[in-house]
Amino acid sequence: MTKRRRNRYSPEAKVKILKRHLVDNVAVSDLCEEHNLNPTVFYRWMKEFFEYGASAFEREQSHLQRKAEKRIEALEEKLKKKNEVLSELMEEHIQLKKELGEL
């Protein structure tokens, strides 16, 4: 039995090979022979493709989520500063009332 040389395929190359099988109906055996792949590897790629395929569409969602998180952080920081300023003003107001004898 001939030992196969291990090839490294990029994610794009893997999808291209899977697409040839799924869309162009090329037989798995032909693809494996053409690309010097073990059929087990091919089927593992297919399993991963279907399990994690949804993540390809989550990129936009995660981008929007990060944008919303940044906005929330900015608003929280703004609210914190406003509360600090308000606190200082209240302290000064109370101090002034004490000095004027109103408290």
What's the helix and strand layout?
Layout: H1 11-22, H2 28-35, H3 39-52, H4 55-100
Quick summary of this structure?
This protein has 103 residues and is an all-alpha fold. The chain has helices at 11-22, 28-35, 39-52, 55-100. The N and C termini lie far apart (97 Å).
Description:
By secondary structure, the chain is an all-alpha fold. It has 4 helices and no strands. The chain is rod-shaped and about 95 Å long. The mean pLDDT is 87.
Mind summarizing the main beta sheet?
Answer: none
Shape: rod-shaped
| Structural class based on helices, strands and sheet pairing | mainly alpha
Summarize model confidence as the mean pLDDT: 87
Low-confidence stretches: none
Q: From the alpha-carbon coordinates, what is the Rg to the nearest angstrom?
A: 31 Å
Strand content: under 5%
Features:
103 residues, single chain, mainly alpha
